[in-house]
Amino acid sequence: MITFFLVFVILIGWIFSHALNSQAILYFAVVFSVLTSISSYWYSDKIVLMTTGAKPIEKKDNPELYRIVENLCITAGLPVPQIYILNEAQPNAFATGRDEKHAVLAVTKGLLGKLEKSELEGVIAHELSHIKNKDMLLMTVVVVLAGVISVAADFFLRMTFWGGHRDNDNNSNSNVVFLVLGIAAAILAPIAATLIQLAISRNREFLADASGALLTRYPEGLASALEKIAADGSQLRTANSSNAHLFISSPFRGKETKSWFNKLFLTHPPVEERLANLRGMKI
């Protein structure tokens, strides 16, 4: 999917560049997207913690939680991440940070109060798997690619409507074709890029489920936890569209859908599919 995404970005850039007879649009989009995404990646943990209102805790504040995290980190070969608590009733959790040495694990009070130990271990193993699998880095790359397309599309439309397109008398027919293709791509490409980004995000959730189950050697723990999380009707007040994809399960309640079309725009796979995969594992 990443390879396809790269080819897709190059193709869109090629169309835009030919439509405007300039390579500058692609160069600008790449540089702008890379710089903004690197900045976001470097400070991702601070940004997310600030938007969610998570508070750090020490080992003395919750020794049992720390023991679970420490034991799973030893098994996974990871340094112990910083642990944060969200004052939220909805059971949920997320991991963030730019690498293993700067990782953050956050859980809600609802998660600690509503799950059994084996279920809590399953959730934490899932989040540690995101760290182990370098999903934060991968998703940053994906965001860069999606950003390149969005910025390039916006720049192309502005240049087109502000008279940035220069006709070439010798290739007027070719220019018209590229201009039409460029306008169509500028409208449709950002949507396609978002769909690819969300598909990769859902794929990484499946991988983290499987990796987490292998870490605990007990897939039913995570499966049972996902059932409880999905069935809980509590709202997560600090969740928004910019951080929803980080959580182990979509924090938005009452907005889930089974429509195949709407599934394309989900940040997480349907719970039923995740449960089927977990309960189909043989460990």
Q: Give the CATH class of the largest domain.
A: Alpha Beta
* Strands side by side in the biggest sheet: 1-2-4-3
Low-confidence stretches: none
Radius of gyration, in angstroms, nearest whole number: 22 Å
Percentage beta strand? 5-15%
CATH topology type of the largest domain:
Zincin-like
Based on helices, strands and strand pairing, what is the structural class? alpha+beta
Q: Which superfamily, in CATH terms, is the homologous superfamily of the largest domain?
A: Metalloproteases ("zincins"), catalytic domain
CATH arch. level architecture of the largest domain: 2-Layer Sandwich
Main beta sheet: strand number and arrangement? 4 strands, mixed
| Continuous helix count | 11
CA(first)-CA(last) distance: 28 Å
User: What's the total number of strands?
Assistant: 4
For the residues shown, what is the average pLDDT?
Answer: 85
Shape: elongated
- Summed up, the domain count is 2
Note down, in words, how this protein is organized.
- By secondary structure, the protein is of the alpha+beta class.
- It folds into two domains: 2-43 and 136-190, no CATH class; 53-131 and 200-279, Zincin-like (2-Layer Sandwich).
- Helices cover 64% and strands 6% of the residues.
- The protein is built from eleven helices and four strands; from the N terminus they run αααβαβββααααααα.
- A four-stranded mixed sheet has the order 1-2-4-3, sandwiched between helices.
- A hairpin with a 5-residue loop joins β3 (93-97) and β4 (103-108).
- α6 packs across α9 (219-231).
- The radius of gyration is 22 Å and the shape is elongated.
- The mean pLDDT is 85.
